[in-house]
Amino acid sequence: MSRAAILRIFLPNRAVDPATALFLVAFWVAAMLLVWLLSPFASLPTPVEVWRALGALWWKHGMGPELLTTIKLILHALLLTIILSMLLSYATVIAFFRPLVAAACKLRFLGLTGLVFPFTLLTGGGYPLKVALLTFGMASFFVTSMAQVVVEIPRVQFDHMRVLGAGELRILWEVVVRGTLDKALDVLRQNAAIGWAMITMVEGISRAEGGVGALILNQNKHFLLAEVYAILLVILLLGLGMDYGMGVLTNLICPYARLERVKR
Amino acid sequence: MSEVSTLGDVLLKVEEVSLRLGDVQVLDKVQFEVRDRIRVGACTGQIVGILGPSGVGKTRLLRIIAALDAPDAGTVTGLKGVQVSAGHVGVVFQDYPLLRHRSVRSNLEIAGIANGMPRAEARQRASQLLEGFRLADRASYYPAQLSGGQRQRVAIAQQLVSPKTLLLMDEPFSGLDPAALDEVMHLIVEVANMNELNTILIVTHDIRAAMAVSDTLLMLGRDRSPEGKIVSGARIQGCYDLVEKGLAWRAEVMELPAFAQLEKEIRGRFKQL
Lengths: 264, 273
Fold this sequence. Notes:
The structure holds two protein chains of two kinds. By secondary structure, chain A is mostly helical. Helices cover 78% and strands 0% of the residues of chain A.
């Protein structure tokens, strides 16, 4: 690497080529692993201990099926979140629904813990309760972000379609729905991450159906630190995989969005 | 020497249009009309330049003429006195908005479909316009992949998919380099002359470019009090018939001494608007 290229990675507002970007990622991963290996904290198991715990969890404690349970739960909740949130967000174009959407946005200040009791009464507990809690948790944030996206559509976009002679329904479809699809997918990506972060808590509330949340709490109870870190690592990697997959999906469905991004 | 031409039907009539926003009177009884310019043996559309300084209310007036906003008073009528309605007037907005999720071709097609044109016809019209506007090689591009000039051409072409005789353009010359400016001026004249009844209304503060393409120049400005302070409420302060002055429909018009003389006069007047 030339002196200028090295200097470039330390200067603000500079773009780097893909090879340098990859090198930087590799550098930081290696640095993290080194810190982990040399960690003086006794409460932090070594990578070898975590790797062994992962093997035991997978082969002896049925981590595979638990993961499937969790993935099924998040996908189910995500689907409901998309339907509910999109309907509410797009409803902001109609004045009648705006107070309702504004109220739905404010619900994000309610913690999930306090809602367990009324939601248990409503859903009867178990799997439906977990789906309801996750959906509520994700949807309140999703609607907030998405309603903002819709509100920020410049007026000229609506006028542009009007002068072309488009009716209001077509304007809604072209400008609001299709015109913000890439942003909706970005918001969905962020909310999937929020949902994924909530999953251990939600699964902990009702452990009967299992899932990695229930699994991690069981390991916590027995103070099995290496197992806890192994599950955390799997949750992190799966979350990253899901996030990457959604990024690829966004690029496939909305290739124009990538063209508009300015490299710095 | 002036061209031999006569005036035909009224194509656009703006009558006593006033607009107030809060405490500010933006437009005060704006009034003008555009008539068909008839030249024997030539298909000549109309190009009217509305000159005025920034913030005077040019865009507000354009939005009212396009029927996007309603005035507080006054009317805007087209050919045969029919009230102008949104969707029947083409508007090329300042930043050339296009549907970012559609390709250039698709942007043109949707302009026809949105206006009730059958899909096959819209596709055919889009192909014609892509060729006519030298955009055929950019048909599959997304708006984000276009240069400013190409984007402007697409925006103009989009307004021509459905037959409309009145086209409004908001600051079409802003931010263009000299070559692009020449190209846009040429394009405006070309579009105007596609149909005898075509009328292009250009709202701009670029005096020279407006003079070069227009057959009529209107000056939108505000009055001044005896103390020299600006009085709110813009109206048409002056009208220049460039055909009468022999400064319209000529390729090298900018090189004429009379052009330079008139430009100087208009510049002097512009400062007082």
